[in-house]
């Protein structure tokens, strides 16, 4: 590795704006967004853990989706909120590496969990008689472990690519977070191959996962023709929720990670959408469109026995 050749020990993050008034607006807005993300996802986590009515594999995966959303947002939002109050914001090289690892780890974990949720819906709708046998708790646990290992491999690759770059200066990152793409502009070496590896790693994961997910939902929706009207309505409600989440998350990711190492003025806002916006919207999408989750939450709020189903 070329880490020993680095002269840079910290980076300066320019954030979203340098205007003091706008910084205060950024602080207020994203503090509310982050608190909303924590509240919504923790509410889903607690509801699934305490409700016997939500014991199916679908809610098992939804639990981990909310968990990854919470951690994904936490890897970015708190520092961004604090930085908006400071005049000069710096991040050490080691902190930058940690942020890249956690950001990509939980982002990739969310992608894999969304794929597992699509697999779960496919088995539930297309193989209903064998659903519980195929999607047993042991199988679900194994799939989640594989998702964690795969996420670790992905994020470790990002760290390896980052550490392979020599940084001699400048050290100003025109962004509000540390990521491999903005760091490519600061490296004092040819970054062509690193950018190719970035696209083939992050870009490929996003693109291939999106194609797999959309293909699986086409099969699922096609198979609903043989179901009753009530069954179609319930299955459509669940699948549409998943499709909305997939589009909101993968659209911005593909835009950021499947192109050459160039930056556009809109990059920061697009990154905000999937790092801050999507974790906030996911709990709303899954609760507002899911009667079982809403009913379980009502039982918790009204302090009724959870077993009354």
Automatic annotation (TrEMBL):
Matching InterPro entries: GPCR_Rhodpsn, GPCR_Rhodpsn_7TM, Olfact_rcpt, Olfactory_Receptors
Topology versus the membrane: Multi-pass membrane protein
An example Gene Ontology molecular-function term: olfactory receptor activity
Keyword terms: Cell membrane, G-protein coupled receptor, Membrane, Olfaction, Receptor, Sensory transduction, Transducer, Transmembrane, Transmembrane helix
GO cellular component, one term: plasma membrane
Subcellular locations according to the entry: Cell membrane; Membrane
SUPFAM superfamilies (UniProt xref): Family A G protein-coupled receptor-like
Chief location bin: membrane
Gene3D superfamilies: Rhodopsin 7-helix transmembrane proteins
PROSITE patterns for this protein: G_PROTEIN_RECEP_F1_1, G_PROTEIN_RECEP_F1_2
Highest taxon listed in the record's lineage: Eukaryota
Recorded family membership: Belongs to the G-protein coupled receptor 1 family.
Name of the protein: Olfactory receptor
């Amino acid at each position: 590795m070329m880490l020993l050749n680095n002269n840079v020990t910290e980076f300066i993050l320019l954030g979203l704006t340098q205007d003091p008034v706008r910084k205060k607006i950024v602080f207020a807005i994203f503090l509310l967004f982050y608190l909303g993300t924590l509240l919504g996802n923790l509410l889903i986590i607690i509801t699934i853990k305490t409700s016997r009515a939500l014991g199916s594999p679908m809610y098992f995966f939804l639990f981990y989706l909310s968990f990854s959303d919470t951690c994904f947002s936490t890897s970015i939002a708190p520092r961004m909120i604090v930085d908006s109050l400071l005049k000069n914001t710096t991040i050490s090289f080691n902190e930058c590496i940690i942020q890249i690892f956690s950001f990509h780890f939980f982002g990739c974990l969310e992608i894999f969990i969304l794929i597992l949720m699509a697999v779960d819906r496919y088995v539930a709708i297309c193989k209903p008689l064998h659903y519980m046998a195929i999607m047993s708790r042991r199988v679900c646990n194994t799939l989640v472990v594989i998702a964690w290992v795969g996420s670790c491999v992905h994020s470790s690759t990002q760290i390896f690519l980052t550490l392979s770059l020599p940084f001699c200066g400048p050290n100003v990152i025109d962004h509000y977070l540390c990521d491999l793409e903005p760091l490519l502009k600061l490296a004092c070496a040819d970054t062509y191959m690193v950018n190719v590896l970035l696209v083939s790693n992050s870009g490929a994961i996003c693109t291939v996962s999106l194609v797999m997910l959309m293909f699986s939902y086409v099969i699922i929706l096609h198979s609903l023709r043989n179901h009753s009207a009530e069954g179609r309505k319930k299955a459509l409600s669940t699948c549409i929720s998943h499709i909305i989440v997939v589009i909101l998350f993968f659209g911005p990711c593909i835009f950021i990670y499947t192109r050459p190492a160039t930056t556009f003025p809109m990059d920061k806002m697009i990154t905000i959408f999937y790092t801050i916006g999507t974790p906030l919207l996911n709990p709303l999408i899954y609760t507002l469109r899911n009667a079982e989750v809403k009913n379980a939450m009502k039982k918790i709020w009204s302090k009724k026995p959870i077993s009354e189903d």
